[in-house]
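Example for tutorial group B:
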């Protein structure tokens, strides 16, 4: 709301004497377009309690400040605010450090006066460093070398260099990895105790962490060096187009937005003037286009592009100028073009209602599992093992236990669909060997999120009506 209202004010402020007969898209229309695209682009950011929602808020606030500064509000305090918002974005999501320099460079183009540009960029940088400096010093001290964060490095290794992701990387590469020797080997990988199914232990590290393998992923990837690989970047871009199908021309919401934009552009009938006018929105258009491109060529997920798609499209719509709307034919086109984007809002609205309806009683057994562990004498800090390597370990957090060993076996995203661990496909002898390895590692119980009914014949106990099973290693 803050950003969108400021954008509307900005649209009106840049109507020059040469275009007095032309007007921006009407306020009511740009509001509908803005909110429709906002819900379309932003909704994927809010599906889970991740930093992405907060990060999106900083981005809208950042672009709001850019618009204020462009409207000749070049008070030094504005640049302090700008630095603080950049710092908050960095602390919320280290991904921000990719384009912080990009924004600092943009400040130089706000003024024609180089001295003023230098002063304002310096103020922004100083405010930024004062906010993030203590974090960087603490992190660098913890890692033993200077670092702004390891998140980008780890994601690049996994998403672009295509080494084993999430957990238990032992130095191997998959078939899509080229020049595997350039990556190196992990300095302290998890300890592989059994093969087929692969079973690992990781006790003795991050003693207060519920799940040590995910407490600090950079620790387990230490020793790996990312390297540039154009082929994999291009492959990531191809996957981006296949996965999203939403940015420009795909047969879904993105297509409605594109058609609406073209109708507005045609109604203005002055393409050359539009391109000139677009230069007033480069502070919105170029950074967002740059960030979307970076995401597209590395690893796309809708929650990464959340705030950038609405700002990108709104900058394109805002640069359009129309004749006075007293022409009935033109007024009709504006309504049609606006309605096309409104369809996006309706589609997302119905999709959201459908999701809520289908998930009225979500499968969430973790509280019952934690209560059962407490009932059988498992207390805070006790060591446990599990048969899956999913990142969802709410039961362990609620019980305040520590996972120290596991079978490397994933689960489906929908945990209501029981997909059994590789453990259950192994022979009885191998299963016994794995359970013995858990006990040797120090675990006192083993937990499975899905098991066959026959598991109860092997001393596995089902926890109430959940799909969780437990094996007491103390017996």
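The residue assignment follows.
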């Amino acid at each position: 709301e803050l950003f969108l209202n400021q954008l509307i004010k900005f649209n009106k402020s840049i109507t020059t004497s040469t275009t007095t007969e032309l007007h921006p898209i009407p306020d009511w229309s740009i509001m509908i377009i803005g909110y429709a695209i906002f819900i379309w682009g932003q909704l994927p950011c809010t599906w889970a309690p991740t930093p992405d929602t907060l990060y999106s808020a900083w981005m809208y606030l950042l672009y709001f400040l850019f618009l204020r500064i462009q409207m000749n509000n070049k008070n030094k305090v504005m640049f302090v605010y700008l630095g603080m918002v950049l710092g908050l974005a960095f602390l919320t999501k280290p991904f921000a450090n990719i384009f912080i320099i990009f924004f600092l460079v943009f400040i130089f183009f706000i003024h024609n006066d180089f001295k003023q540009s230098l002063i304002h960029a310096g103020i922004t940088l100083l405010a930024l460093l004062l906010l993030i400096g203590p974090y960087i010093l603490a992190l660098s001290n913890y890692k033993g070398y200077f670092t702004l964060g390891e998140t980008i490095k780890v994601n690049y290794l996994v998403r672009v260099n295509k080494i084993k992701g999430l957990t238990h990387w032992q130095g191997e590469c998959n078939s899509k990895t080229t020049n595997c020797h350039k990556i190196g080997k992990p300095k302290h990988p998890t300890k592989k105790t059994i093969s087929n199914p692969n079973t690992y232990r990781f006790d003795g590290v991050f003693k207060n962490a519920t799940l040590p393998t995910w407490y600090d992923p950079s620790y387990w990837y230490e020793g790996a060096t990312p390297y540039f690989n154009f082929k994999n970047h291009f492959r990531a871009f191809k996957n981006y187009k296949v996965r999203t199908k939403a940015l420009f021309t795909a047969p879904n919401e993105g297509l409605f937005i594109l058609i609406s934009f073209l109708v507005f552009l045609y109604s203005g009938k002055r393409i050359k003037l539009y391109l000139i006018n677009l230069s007033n929105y480069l502070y919105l258009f170029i950074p967002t286009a740059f960030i979307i491109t970076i995401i597209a060529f590395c690893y796309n997920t809708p929650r990464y592009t959340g705030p950038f798609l609405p700002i990108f499209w709104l900058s394109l719509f805002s640069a359009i100028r129309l004749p006075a709307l007293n022409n009935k034919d033109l007024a009709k086109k504006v309504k049609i073009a606006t309605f096309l984007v409104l369809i996006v809002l309706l589609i997302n609205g119905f999709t959201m209602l459908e999701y809520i309806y289908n998930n009225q009683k979500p499968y969430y057994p973790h509280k019952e599992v934690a209560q059962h562990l407490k009932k059988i004498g498992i207390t805070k800090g006790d060591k446990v093992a599990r048969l899956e390597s999913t990142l969802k370990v709410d039961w362990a957090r609620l019980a305040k236990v520590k996972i120290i060993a596991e079978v490397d076996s994933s689960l489906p995203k929908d945990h209501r669909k029981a997909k059994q661990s590789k453990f259950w496909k192994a022979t009885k002898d191998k299963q016994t060997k794995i359970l013995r390895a858990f006990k040797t590692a120090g675990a006192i119980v083993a937990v499975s999120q899905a098991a066959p009914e026959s598991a109860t014949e092997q001393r596995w106990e089902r926890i109430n009506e959940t799909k969780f099973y437990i094996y007491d290693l103390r017996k």
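The CA atoms of residues 384 and 464 lie 20 Å apart. Compare this with the pattern of hydrophobic and polar residues in the output above.
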